[in-house]
Amino acid sequence: MNSLEYRLNLLPYTRAELIEMVKKQVSKKRFRHILGVEQSAIELAEQYGGCIERASIAGLLHDYCKEMPADVFLQAIDDFRLNVDLKTWNNNIWHGMVGASIIREQLELTDEVILHAIEIHTTGNAQMSLLDKILYVADYIELGRDFPDVQEAREIANQSLDAAVAFETAHTLAHLIAKNIAIYPLTIETYNHYCAGRK
Ligand code: GDP
Ligand code: FE
Ligand code: FE
């Protein structure tokens, strides 16, 4: 995907400049993951009729805040007047839910469709847009991922995006429960809607 050039003016940077900015923010390992997510998101956008450019930007930026320290998120929750309940969570939830606001400000990204996909990329929600689903699934199935069910997840994503959202959600939830990790309410919303058929 090195030939992809941005034409929609969603950002004041080229894709090459954006990649350099992301590279400076994260470890080598996470950078490789991020490039993998971009690639998977572009492929899913091609398959399911999504916007390639938004898929690329969402993929490149989704974990931009993943390695920021807690105090940055706690300050951002105040600065951006986000729900104070967020303070009781941790980086796993903050890097998306709070990260989207940090990215909006730091990177001059105003496209709310991309920002929303980044915001809920860890948890999903009950009403996911096409880009929300593309990013959520791409994050799970990118080629660098290596866990027991990933091949099945990739095959399901090839058949149905909604089925892939359901598969990922059920597996993530089972994993969190097995480890006695607190479930963020939006994750339950995603489960109720995509796995249990609640409207
Ligand atoms: P990553 O940033 O590429 O590692 O992937 P994600 O953003 O999807 O997930 C980050 C971490 O948050 C993973 O370890 C998930 O298992 C975890 N996670 C997902 N949903 C929840 C949730 O509802 N609650 C908590 N506490 N963690 C979650
Ligand atoms: Fe993430
Ligand atoms: Fe990720």
Task: Kindly describe this structure.
The protein is an all-alpha fold. The protein has a domain at about 15-145: Orthogonal Bundle (Hypothetical protein af1432). Helices cover about 65% and strands about 0% of the residues. The chain is built from eleven helices and no strands. Helix 6 runs antiparallel to helix 7 and helix 10 (about 160-180) crosses helix 11 (about 185-195). The protein is globular and about 40 Å long. The N and C termini lie far apart (about 35 Å).
Low-confidence stretches: none
CATH-derived topology of the domain at 15-147: Hypothetical protein af1432
Give average pLDDT, whole number.
97
Bound molecules: guanosine-5'-diphosphate, fe (iii) ion
How are helices and strands ordered from N to C? Answer: HHHHHHHHHHH
The CATH superfamily label of the domain at 15-147 reads: Hypothetical protein af1432
Sketch the major β-sheet: none
What's the architecture of the domain at 15-147, going by CATH? Orthogonal Bundle
Per CATH, the class of the domain at 15-147 reads: Mainly Alpha
Computed structural class:
mainly alpha
Spatial shape: globular
Number of helices: 11
Task: Give the N-to-C terminal Cα separation.
Answer: 37 Å
The amount of helix comes to 55-70%
